[in-house]
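Help!! Second protein's tokens look totally different from the first
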Amino acid sequence: MPGDGDEITRVTRSKDVARVSYDKLSKWYDLIAGSSERKFRDVGLDKLGVGVGERVLEIGFGTGHSLVALAQRVGTSGKVYGIDLSEGMFQLAEARVRAAGLSTRVELARGDATRLPYETDFFDAVLMSFVLELFDTPELSIVLRECRRVLRRHGRTSVVALSKKKGLAVTLYEWAHAQFPSTVDCRPIFVKRTLEGAGFQVVDSTEMSMWGLPVDVVVARKALS
């Protein structure tokens, strides 16, 4: 079984399969995964340190909880943008933002993070929570390079992700991912190493655990070339 090597496993399901899967899952996502992911997502939000007047992007916004929190933090002078592959997630997130009375502070898009539809040097901060590990290995650097492109000078990102470390839980999870790639559709990655390889400088890292699986919350700044 995979799990103890120095390589991360591949993501073999297609983007179309992922889109359909999350469209179907969207109505049940908070019930299935929302409560278990919330505390990690909140740590990532807090460590990003978003302030009034900032322009922030969330990649893979899911059902929209973080969008609401970010919109509250940027105030009326800031703006929150979000991009997600799933139409079902888009609809739920849009409804949640509207119910919170924050629609004027949030702009949502459907799309692929390997091709972000935003200008260069546009954002102060980028948030990804349990999203980066959904991308296949060759796409990790592409997504982070796009993040680096759209971030302003000294802009920062907060990444919450399953972390590749030795242990039985990771070995079993990677086995399940290999056997059921469309259901267990993500896998642990080397979070800090991947960020640094894409031109980011890690400034803060917190190790956590979810059901025995290691989770890293990493904040990194756009390194100047």
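Here's the second one for comparison:
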Amino acid sequence: MSVSKAAKLAPLNSDRPQTDRKPKEKRWQEILQAATEVFYEKGYDAATLQDIADRVGILKGSIYYYIKTKGDLLEHLLADAHANGIAALRERAQTPGNEFEKLDAMIRRQIDAVCRQQIKTTVYLRELKSIPLDKRKSLIGMHEFRDEFRAILKEGQAKGLILSDLDATLTAQALVSSINSLYQWYKPHPRRPIGRIADHFATILLRGIATRAGQKLLPAPPKAGGRASTVSA
């Protein structure tokens, strides 16, 4: 995310003298955490600033020290989640090795983030529609996650590793959408750890796009009943 976008994440009145009992940055983080939980539980439309204030344990009026509207809070949450997520994905896109190793690392990172940060992910994916399209474009851009996958897919096609007749944009969208669907159904389970889910997704998603030459470079599929792979955050 650019510096100008990142600057929007600062509390509204960050230069005002501190009047709250807690340091303003700590209180601001508590408000953001409470907003995330309330938006997750009630949905953005049904949630109120009073709900958020009650969760933090402060008066509703204290929130206006930091923001003007409930929408400001949602914008902060979405921009922060987007900036952290796209930075981590771009780091995985630089993984040493061939395109399948890069895609494997990217898929696993996304799955790990969706499952381990399910509340934040749910708010991000579910409530994007609550922001007008023009505001959404200026706040977080458009299709950045998809385009990171698309770039690697195009590189693999140029090398003859990924099927050339696949539409790279559509394929990238299918990859992202399938991973994002996890927020709707994932539940922690000892027999289905995140690493094993990542193994299955990576196997299914990558084998279906590889050429004969590409098949030779695919990560080895998990053994049935074997130990799940480790997924880094």
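Reply: Different proteins will give different token patterns, so don't panic. The mean pLDDT is 88.
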